[in-house]
Design goal:
The chain is mainly α. It is built from ten helices and two strands. The chain has helices at 7-16, 20-35, 75-102, 108-134, 147-154, 159-187, 191-221, 226-236, 248-253, 258-272, and strands at 5-6, 39-40. Helix 3 runs antiparallel to helix 4 (108-134), helix 4 (108-134) runs antiparallel to helix 7 and helix 6 (159-187) packs antiparallel against helix 7 (191-221). It is globular. It comes from Chromobacterium indicum. InterPro entries: DUF455 (IPR007402), Ferritin-like_SF (IPR009078), UCP012318 (IPR011197). This is Ferritin-like domain-containing protein.
Length: 275
């Protein structure tokens, strides 16, 4: 009979692991062992500020303006686009692990949700890395930026703020841009990558839904009105919702409020009208 192990040191091991395949395997094993009752939440010190998770030496991390252009007119541009998405998914593994590891006063359901997200993000990365290999590239062949982990650091003091600004803003934006990326890939005949993004989009709706659910729950536990609180956090962190294409059906499925969707629809219409 397997003896139960302490949860938090194992999550920390996965977070700090710099070897890509080992990190992916650890994330998937954490979900499996947690679901199998093999991990226990023993009393442990509070999580510390983590400047960087474990990551390989490549890709080189640069300012966003230095990230490779992603025109699909060339194989290089095609690869750069898929690499950028793969980098997001790799970072998403770390963000999900960090949520499960950091916010230790949250209930077991929170741990279960974010370990599940981490394992699914690992699967997404594997799919995208496979498409990169089909094009003759590997993860690390293109520079990348560190915007996702920067937001992770900015929100490491409060689970409610994390749920607001990572799932409800950054990950939700992924719901918006994916259909357009799929159309571009279909236009060059890359239907295999379109199919991969179908899987990712389906799962990401669930991930954003998890963030929405916990944000609303935490607001209500604190006697806060969720939408006003969200708007206040956007202002506090100088984040804006700009005119553009919003995937309103995916956002509705992920649990955004009706009046939020109406406001986003107006932003979408302002682009269509040329305003």
């Amino acid at each position: 009979m397997n003896q139960a192990q302490s949860l938090y040191p194992l999550i920390e091991q996965a977070l700090l692991c710099p070897v890509v395949d080992d990190k992916l395997a650890l994330a998937e094993r954490l979900r499996r062992d947690w679901r199998g009752g093999l991990l226990v939440r023993e009393a442990s010190p509070a999580a510390y500020a983590l400047p960087q998770p474990g990551r390989p030496l490549r890709p080189e991390l640069v300012h966003p303006v230095r990230v490779s252009r992603r025109s699909l007119a060339t194989r290089h541009g095609h690869g750069a686009l898929l690499h950028a998405i793969a980098h997001i998914e790799f970072n998403a593994v770390n963000l999900a692990l960090d949520a499960a590891w950091r916010f230790r006063d949250m209930p077991d359901e929170f741990v279960d949700d974010w370990l599940t997200v981490a394992a699914e993000e690992a699967g997404h990365f594997r799919l995208l890395r496979g498409r990169l290999a089909d094009l003759g590239f590997a993860y690390g062949d293109f520079p990348a930026h560190d915007g996702l982990w920067t937001m992770c650091r900015k929100t490491d003091h409060d689970a409610m703020v994390r749920m607001a600004l990572v799932p409800r803003v950054l990950e939700a934006r992924g719901l918006d841009v994916t259909p357009g990326i799929q159309r571009r890939l279909a236009g060059i005949g890359d239907h295999a990558s379109v199919a991969v993004l179908d899987v990712i989009l389906r799962d990401e709706v669930g991930h954003v839904m998890i963030g929405n659910r916990w944000f609303v729950r935490l607001c209500r536990e604190r006697g806060l009105e969720p939408q006003a609180t969200f708007r206040g956090l956007l202002e506090q962190h100088a984040m804006q919702l700009h005119p553009g294409d919003y995937n309103l059906s995916a956002r509705a499925e992920a649990g955004f409020f009706a009046d939020e969707l109406e406001a986003l629809a107006r932003l979408t219409e302002s682009v269509s009208d040329g305003r």
